[in-house]
Amino acid sequence: MIIGNKQSNGIDDAADQRLRFLVCGDRGMLIECDDLNATLRLFAAVKAAASAAESSACAPITTPTQSATGQSLHARPGSSPTFDADYPAGVSPNMKGIAARASHHADALSAITELIPAARTLFIRFNPLLTTRAELETAVRGLDTRVDVAHAAHAISIPVTYDGEDLAEVADMLGLSSEAVIARHCGTPWSVAFVGFAPGFAYLTGGDPCFDVPRRATPRLSVPAGAVGLAGKFSGIYPRPSSGGWQLIGHTDVPMWDDSAKVPALLQPGDTVRFAPVRPQTPIVSGSPASAGASASADFPTNAASPDIAASDTFQRNAASPSTSALIVLRPGILATFQDDGRNAANMGVTGSGAADPIAYHLANALVGNAPGTPAIELTNGGAMIQASGDAVVAVAGAPVDITITGRDGGRPFAIGGQEAFLLRDGETMTIGTPTAGLRDYLAVMGGFDVPRMLGSASTDTMSGIGPKPLHAGQTVPIGTGLRTEPTDGQRTTDDNRHRDADPGTRRPSAVSAGVAPREDWPSDLPSPGTTTTLEVTLGPRADWFTDAGLNTLLEQEWLVTAQSNRVGLRLSGEVPLERRDAVELASEATVAGAVEVPTSGQPVIFLRDQPVTGGYPVVAVLTTASLAMAGQLPPGARVTFRVTATPARHHMAATSGSDPRLASQDDGAIASHEFAERTHEQATEASL
After folding, report:
1. In angstroms, rounded to a whole number, what is the distance separating the alpha carbons of residues 51 and 680?
2. In this predicted structure, what is the pLDDT of residue 440?
3. How far apart are CA 82 and CA 79, in angstroms?
4. Each residue of 155-209: pLDDT tens digit?
5. Does an H or E element contain 533, and which?
6. What is the mean pLDDT of the segment spanning 657-680?
7. Residue 370 CA from chain centroid, whole number
8. What would you report as the CA-atom Rg of the chain, rounded to the nearest whole angstrom?
9. Fewer CB within 10 Å, N- or C-terminus of the chain?
């Protein structure tokens, strides 16, 4: 089978630039521009046009989900979240005229849900219920991008101590003295082009033309927070300790990311940054009179000092007051995290996160009568033990597992036979075994868990550390009271009888509330170690970077899911690596959940929900929405094959509709034993550095 490299590309010279439209999944496109400046002009034009289209369609009616560059996302009946009417930071006022020139494309533009600019590309995510890829492409082509983009949203001065380990080496590369490097770094303002790699990591461009510095041949394993570096024509500041390959020339004490701020990222696309040299200072003892304001002054504001960013608690509790009931984690298993539908703050370098299997997650909440989006506990590979403190109505959905309930007196345990709501009495312990197929389960409780939220979500981001920390033994998780429905008298009688003389081995606990969904059997089509599952993909955006032989290898070879897999992504191993046409380095560009990225080794990585916002390796294909949900259930030792889907379906919304269109396993072979390990995804860290 020969697979050609043709893609749905287009060239547009109408606005003095070439635009190449690339397929990026069943609800996304990647637009390649001539250079960074062209990308920023296109970003500003699309952002303004989408805002104007949404404003003319209807007024926003719901609480916005925090995004970046002033992008508050709203939902209206029958649509997905879209941009509010505020024009993006740094867009000239004359861009408001775009709305009139693009009025006939308003429907397509109002379907845009996310924009991620990068070095030479703009990623657009859209709602396939509201438009088609072709309609959106036509609308984007009709925009006038020949406008100036004023990078003056905020002017931020950042003090830097120029004591970096690589300062002297950078000076030698550029044929300058160290003093001249410092003077040039501070002498010209920089602009925030985009944010990626890590939350709050801003790529600064437009500095002195002399700066074009290659990355280090070997990345450092640890770069401290606040380190100021150079890479190519970019400058940047590390927001937190991480590995990295940028050339370090100094450091700053001003935090780039502040969990306590309403907008945690200090730098936003369009901001202007000026660096100011400062002399090294003697550390001030904490609590001394001089310590106040030591890290920043009025000239060097932190997030809280920004005039238009109010300092407030980013972590917000659920609206409902917590009840007296709680769940006590006696044993969390390999990994237990809070998850919901995730975030929308990619322009701050924050990935979406959210449930790895949204179908099972939504079912768990439906079983206990919770509203969609209520946080649940995601259990990886089972092995958990939970005790009730006070009565609680709970449900477990996802991978088939044995669930047993033991009373406070340690009497004979009884089993839960499927995906259903049941009453866990005060003092009872629920033990969740190891899945017989699949990998992840979702534990929901009626009323929801009372857990902190960041940027509108309670999801744990395992790559960046944003959100609640993974659950640990001994932790008490309070239960909220949101949308909880009390059982009827008849149901109370039935449930009370369960604890009397009924044989717990033969009597299954009944549903306890009129608000719960009916019981469902465990799914029979989830993958197991040793079996093969077919995942559907759309080729692109970088399929043309691979030879025909390489694409055939992708689609004809079976791939093993290795133990070096986690919520960031699945590392695959195949006998034959994917063959590329050349070894050209890819400029950083957006990555999405479901992207099949191919590092230099030629062994693919399937990104899951905690994927990096931007990456530096080509993406050969992207999983469909349904297959992404299935990928969240792939255990190490399972095998996968890829199949190119037909034209992406306009009305395909599997992961949010509650239906379960998972692809059936191709093999009923024996389950093999395997060793599972949640490890740091090193490739994701190095992708943009």
Report:
1. 38
2. 98
3. 8
4. 899 999 999 999 999 999 999 999 999 999 999 999 998 888 788 999 999 899 9
5. strand 532-539
6. 32
7. 23
8. 26
9. N
Report which DSSP code applies to 97.
G
Q: What is the pLDDT of residue 17?
A: 63
Which pair of structure tokens corresponds to residue 227? 């380190």
Q: What's the pTM value of the predicted model, to 2 decimals?
A: 0.74
Helix (H) / strand (E) element for 498: namely helix 489-498
- For residues 623 and 11, give the distance between their C-alpha atoms in angstroms, rounded to a whole number: 26
Question: Where are any strands of DSSP class E within 462-508?
Answer: 476-478
CA 563 to chain centroid = 22
User: How many C-beta neighbours within 10 Å does residue 514 have?
Assistant: 11
Q: Give residue for tokens 């939220």.
A: 453
Write down how long the chain is.
689
**Helix, strand or coil for residue 154?**
coil
Q: Which parts of 32-97 fold into alpha helices (H)?
A: 36-57
Quote the Cα angle for 550-594-557, to 5°.
30
Q: Residue 71 and residue 85: Cα distance in Å, rounded?
A: 9
Is the predicted pLDDT of residue 467 greater than 90, yes or no?
yes
Strand partners, 404: 415, 431
User: Which amino acid, one-letter code, is at 16?
Assistant: D
Look at residue 58 in the predicted model and tell me its pLDDT: 55
CA atoms within 13 A on the CB side of 447: 22
What does the pLDDT read at residue 374?
96
Instruction: Output phi, psi for 300, to 5 deg.
Output: -125, 75
Write down the residue that tokens 């090294």 correspond to.
280
Q: Is 367 helix (H, G, I), strand (E, B) or coil?
A: helix
Mean of the pLDDT values across residues 294-319? 32
